[in-house]
Write a structure and sequence with these properties.
It is a single chain. The chain is mostly helical and 175 residues long. 60% of the residues lie in helices and 0% in strands. It is flat, with a radius of gyration of 32 Å. The protein starts with a helix and ends with a helix.
């Protein structure tokens, strides 16, 4: 029941939501119960110790190593927390040093404060124009043409690759 730009913006969004909900409903009534029946069975707690084949032995060794690592990490955390200030003071000093390096001193140290994507001059000028409310569409188009002519008179033709006036200039009158 929408018209104009609102129709082109919101109808695809509403359709996407409806189709996603339908697909979710169909999957929840068909595939999920079937997979749950096969995957959610009782497990034998001694199964990793009786693992057969190369992959079963590999998984059993991985699980034993992970349990050993987890127990060691837990013991390390318990020692750190029970030591009180012997742990807290170096930890807080490390946090303060990180904060100092991140802000003012970052520009003096190489590699700190750099972006993943450095800022680049793309050689592009983007101009947004808003006409006064109530201006007719043909008057708004004429205004956009005058602005584009002014830009073309300032920028030499050899430096201007392309110029485009979009419908945003025409819809500004209706805002």
């Amino acid at each position: 029941m929408l018209a104009g730009i609102a129709r082109f913006l919101f109808v695809p969004l509403a359709e996407a939501v409806v189709f996603a909900m339908l697909a979710s409903y169909l999957l929840s009534r068909t595939l999920v119960p079937t997979l749950a029946k096969y995957w959610l069975q009782r497990h034998d707690p001694d199964a990793p110790h009786r693992a057969r084949g190369f992959l079963g032995r590999l998984q059993a060794r991985f699980e034993q190593g992970f349990l050993r690592w987890r127990d060691n990490y837990r013991a390390l955390l318990e020692r750190a927390l029970s030591s009180g200030t012997r742990f807290a003071v170096p930890f807080l000093l490390a946090m303060a040093a990180t904060a100092i390096l991140a802000f003012p001193m970052g520009r003096y140290l190489p590699g700190l404060g750099q972006d993943y994507f450095p800022s680049v001059d793309g050689g592009q000028i983007r101009l947004h124009l808003r006409a006064r409310t109530g201006l007719r569409i043909d008057q708004t188009a004429a205004l956009c043409d005058r602005v584009e002519d002014t830009v073309r008179s300032i920028i030499p033709a050899k430096e201007l690759d392309a110029s485009s006036t979009t419908s945003a200039c025409l819809t500004a009158a209706s805002i």
